[in-house]
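Example 4.3 (complexes with small molecules)
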Amino acid sequence: MLTLNNIEVIYNDVILVLKGMSLQVPEGKIVGLLGSNGAGKSTTLKAISGLLKPENGEVTDGSIEFLGEQIHNQDAAEIVRKGIFQVMEGRRVFEHLTVEENLIAGGYTRQGANLKGDLEMVYGYFPRLKDRQKQTAGYLSGGEQQMLAIGRALMARPRLMMLDEPSLGLAPLLVMEIFHIIKRINEERGTTILLVEQNANLTLGVADYAYIMENGRIVLEGYPDILRENADVREFYLGLTEVGQRKSYREVKHYKRRKRWLS
Ligand SMILES: Nc1ncnc2c1ncn2[C@@H]1O[C@H](COP(=O)(O)OP(=O)(O)OP(=O)(O)O)[C@@H](O)[C@H]1O
Ligand SMILES: [Mg+2]
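Answer. The structure with magnesium ion bound is encoded below.
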């Protein structure tokens, strides 16, 4: 459905951030994109959704193909109309609007939309939002705002939904709840999902296939079961040593600085 072929992204005409990034997202699947801070995950999503321009970034090489069409020079609104919707990092909601107004705003791109039915569909996935439909979004908890951000994306009935670190800053139980809902959305609605994360364990739990990126390119890819067995993944992303013991975060981080995926 989506193919990135060797793309290069440069910010401010000089800062090369993506250095030959390639990945594929097959229709109907959940694909995970893992990587540590600064690897280029958000930049990858912005390249796909046409959101680099406001940040003075540009795709300078390679190609981005969605449903057989080149989209890398198109503007963000056009890409949304094609069915790609990005849920930005940091749960961006309209803070002064109510929950329901936020959701209705998410459906604005569609004509002849069945708003009521779609609101019920979103509330079905996120009953907490239904309880708070008249509340101002700015006063929701972090987890509820993340649910609202995903709910708003659902209102646009995307074919491809891209989520940028939905687990960021949330308590583990809430993250599990949200990942479970993401999986349901994929299974029940057939929505294709590109899931950007640092939480490798949960991502490998829901994804059909996953990529690991570092320093602007993919360094490892595979089916979750196989990645879980990979020594480097266990060490750096799952925090496990070969004997299955949990390492201290500090230790892993230190080691990580010394060892690179490709060196
Ligand atoms: N607008 C920008 N101008 C210049 N450099 C940028 C810009 N946005 C990002 N970068 C740089 O590009 C690199 C990748 O950033 P990006 O946000 O894509 O990483 P990330 O993998 O999403 O990290 P995180 O997990 O911290 O969100 C970083 O070194 C960052 O400093
Ligand atoms: Mg990011």
